[in-house]
Write the C-alpha cells for this entry.
Amino acid sequence: MAKWKILVTRRIPEEGMALLAPDCDIELNPHDRPMTRPELLSSAAGKDGVLCLLTDKIDAEFFDAAPKVRGLANYAVGFDNLDVAEATKRRIPLSNTPDVLTNATADMAWALLFAVARRVVESDTVMRSGTWPGWGPLQFIGGDITGATLGIVGAGRIGAAMAARSKGFGMTVLYTEARRNEAFEKEVGARFVGFDELLGQSDYVSVHVPLLPGTRHLFNYEAFGKMKRTAYLINTARGPVLDEAALVKALKDGLIAGAGLDVYEREPAMTEGLADLSNVVLTPHTASATVASRRGMAVKAATNLLAMLRGEKAPDCLNPGIYG
Ligand code: DGY
C-alpha cells in the first residue's frame, strides 16, 4: 500500500514521529519556528493529512489550498486555531489532545501562583544582582496561600486538577461555569458562584476556560475592578481571554496585586508595559512542557491522524457529527 502523504508543521517528540513513519511519507517543517502562512499553504497542498500546532491557523483558505486533506490532528488541547465549523461543512475530521496535559498545566498554574504571590522572581533577581542587604522584616512581603480563597473560572479537566491541588493548602474553592457541575463540587468541595461573586471573593483567580467568542476579553478593566485589590490572577488557558492592555492598566492602577501568565493575547508579542511590571510572572506558553505531557500529546496527535487517514473516527475527534 502506498504511504499517506502528510505534513507535520513542526517537529514533535520522537514517539509521535515514530508512530507515523511506517505508514506515512512525512514532510516535516525543517525550521524550529512556526511555518509562515505561504509555507503552510504550499506544503499542505497535495497532502492527505496534517499534524498541526496551535500556531497554525486552519481555516477556509487553508482547506482551499489543501483539497486532498482528509484529517487534521492538532497538537494541543485548545483548538481556537481551527475553524471547526468550516471543517465540518467540508466533512473533514479534526482532533485535539485532551487529558495528557491536564496535570502539567495545573502544576504550572500553581507554579505561577506561588511565584507571583511569594515574589520568587523578584527575589531571585535581587539575589543575582548582589544587592541584597541581608534579612529585613519588610522585604518581599507577599500574599498568603494557605487558607486563602481560590476562584476557578472554568471547571473542566484542568480547572478541576487546579482545584484538587488546593486541598493541601486548606483553601476555600469557588468556581464559575456555564452550568453547575455537581461532580466537581463533590470532588473538590467547591462552591458554585456567579462570575462577579467569584471575582469579589477570591484571593487567587485561575483561568481555565477555552477561547470562544463568549470568553474573549472576559477579563476586562471592569472585571479587574471587581477583584480584591490584594488578589492575583493566573492564566494558563488562552491569552485573549484577558484584555491584556486592560490588565496592564489594572496592575498599574493597583486594582489587583499581581498576575501570573503563561499565555498572551498576541503571541509571541506582549502588550507594551507588561514586562516592565515587577508584580507579574511571565512564562512562554510552556504549561504543557513536561516530558510526559509532550510525549503524550505527540502520541495522541499521531494516533488521531492515523485513524483519520484510515477513514476511522479519531479517538479525540472534535467534529464527530460528520460521521452521523
Ligand atoms: C494546549 O494544548 O492547548 C496548550 O496551550 C499547549 O500545549
Q: What stands out?
A: The mean pLDDT is 98.
